[in-house]
Design brief:
single chain; 539 residues; alpha/beta; nine-stranded mixed β-sheet; 18 helices; 22% strand; globular
Length: 539
């Protein structure tokens, strides 16, 4: 078996949360900057088919692709770093693998054989891994394996990539990300955890080609030599990954460590071409030389775990860099705004974002934040549920529809200004049944939205079941709220604006999913500009 596509597998050891996704994305960026066509996929060992039904506290943000796949948040990092779109093929879970195998067994595809982990589960995993390279003709496919080596859930994935090494031979490379802890009492960096992690990997039949060592302090040559000796790798293949101030600095740190050069040498890729990182360096320079700053409040109910809104936070960084502006992001739990101290908590804020979400918990705090932004003329962006909260607030306080609400929260509301989409009413299953992925939105001329996008038609990603109730459309329009973006095919109101407000927009879609380092999303760019105007008016 042979392949023109090269496959790199990234595993992790010692502890979780070492940054496999960022290291993978950084390597991919460096290879892309050399002219190679690169993509990344994530193998998640949990049995959920996808993260769509997981609580954000469990898994962080659920990222949505153009084709409607609910995926791991690492796919967001991949897209933001590489400026490419991913798909359902870029995220594979144990649940998805077993579901596929069981469906095949029920259809009789295995001809009555006993279905086993080896070869049926492992073959299914290998098929999914190889599919990207075959279908899209990539030069390099980087595959990140979630969890930590030694986890029982990861074993089928580990066995699958071991087999692929034999199937593809020189077209496969193993990178192992590990931790070099620092013991303050002795003042030493310790290599033993890394040695044990590699030993575990060896027990599964995998010899890592490259070790990326996460560390708080620089590794000297003595430590690198020791790691190389006890882990059976060349010294040049011991790569330091020191803590960085920003995830966007990691590609440059990996470049300095020559990770991309070593990878090219190992895989027999042309490494004569130096990476072109001009745009990336411009982005970082803009972040560092920012002379102006603004305060943006992110209102949500999962703010304790910042990964729950990671795409929004990163979108603000992208837009801030483009505007050469430092964005101070204030994470405010919506429950704290339900009292009388809303004005106190939002004092000095130049822009308010009400985050997406589901359920009734702390929603009144979100509605109060909308009211504060509307009345005080502070730039406002409502995303998904945030837009719905803006509709509810307007109905209650402008249209005087007492107790107006979404039927998600109050099914008996006299004024159900947010209702369930017709096609959602008959559904019983939760997973993968929302309105997901990219949909067309037609923009009305002479609106703020049209000014922002400078086009009549856009395509944005969605993740929702509820939508504005068109029965109330005339009342809203008659009282100062306009619907600037619509999905004509299904007659869905996608965006709202208040023209008398300096900058007030609600969007049913998720603009944060399409913001990248090279192409910051226009809505966030415009929000930063509006925030700067607000800041200057306060001064």
């Amino acid at each position: 078996m042979s392949s023109s596509t090269k496959y790199i597998f990234v595993t992790g050891g010692v502890t979780s949360s070492l940054g496999k996704g960022i290291v993978s994305a950084s390597l991919a960026k460096l290879l892309q900057a050399r002219g190679f066509k690169v993509t990344i996929q994530k193998l998640d060992p949990y049995i959920n088919v996808d993260p769509g039904t997981l609580n954000p506290y469990e898994h962080g943000e659920c990222y949505v692709t153009d084709d409607g796949a609910e995926t791991d948040l690492d796919l967001g990092h991949y897209e933001r770093f590489l400026n490419i779109s991913t798909s359902q093929n870029n995220n594979i879970t144990t649940g998805k693998i077993y579901q596929s195998v069981i469906n095949k067994e029920r259809k009789g595809d295995y001809l009555g054989k006993t279905v086993q982990v080896i070869p049926h589960i492992t073959n299914e995993i290998k098929e999914h891994i190889l599919k990207l390279g075959k279908d899209e003709n990539y030069d390099v496919v980087i595959t990140e394996i979630g969890g930590t080596v030694g986890d029982i859930e990861s074993l089928p994935f580990i066995e699958s990539i071991r087999q692929l090494k034999w199937d593809l031979n020189k077209d496969v490379l193993f990178i192992h990300l590990t931790l070099i802890p620092y013991l303050s009492t002795s003042g030493e960096l310790k290599t033993k955890p890394t040695q044990h992690s590699v030993k575990t990997l060896l027990e599964y039949g995998i010899q890592p080609d490259i070790l990326v060592c996460r560390t708080e302090y620089h590794l000297d040559n003595g430590l690198r030599k020791k790691i190389a000796l006890f882990c059976n790798v060349e010294q040049e293949c011991v790569i330091e990954s020191i803590d960085a101030k920003s995830i966007y600095e990691v590609p440059l740190l990996m470049l300095k460590e020559k990770l991309d050069t070593v990878v090219c040498q190992k895989l027999k890729l042309d490494h004569a071409i130096k990476p072109d990182l001009k745009k990336w360096n411009e982005f970082l320079n803009n972040l560092q030389i920012s002379k102006q700053e603004i305060n943006i409040a992110l209102i949500g109910k999962y703010v304790e775990l910042k990964d729950s809104y990671i795409s929004i936070a990163e979108s603000l960084i992208h837009a801030g860099s483009k505007n050469k502006t430092k964005v101070n992001l204030h994470w405010i739990h919506s429950s704290k705004l339900e009292g009388e101290n809303c004005g106190e908590l939002l004092k000095g804020i130049n822009g308010i974002i009400v985050a997406p979400g589901f359920g009734s918990r702390a929603i009144e705090g979100k509605i109060k934040a909308v009211e504060y932004a509307r009345v005080k003329k502070i730039p406002f962006l409502g995303i998904c549920l945030g837009m719905q909260c803006a509709v509810i607030e307007f109905a209650r306080n402008v249209l005087k529809m007492k107790n107006a609400h979404s039927i998600e929260i109050d099914s008996q509301s006299k004024y159900p200004v947010i209702s369930m989409m017709e096609e959602q009413k008959q559904l019983e299953k939760m997973g993968g049944t929302m309105r997901l992925g990219s949909y067309q939105c037609d923009i009305e001329q002479n609106t703020l939205l049209h000014q922002i996008y400078s086009k009549k038609t856009i395509h944005e990603r969605h993740r929702h079941r509820f939508e504005f109730n068109n029965q109330f459309k005339n009342e809203f329009e008659s009282n100062g709220m306009i619907f600037s973006g619509k999905n004509v095919k299904n007659n869905l109101m996608e965006t709202i604006e208040i023209p008398t407000h300096p900058w007030f927009i609600g969007v049913q879609y998720h603009p944060e999913y399409k913001s990248t380092v090279e192409n910051p999303h226009p809505i966030f760019l415009s929000l930063i500009e509006a925030g700067l105007k607000n800041a200057s008016s306060i001064k």
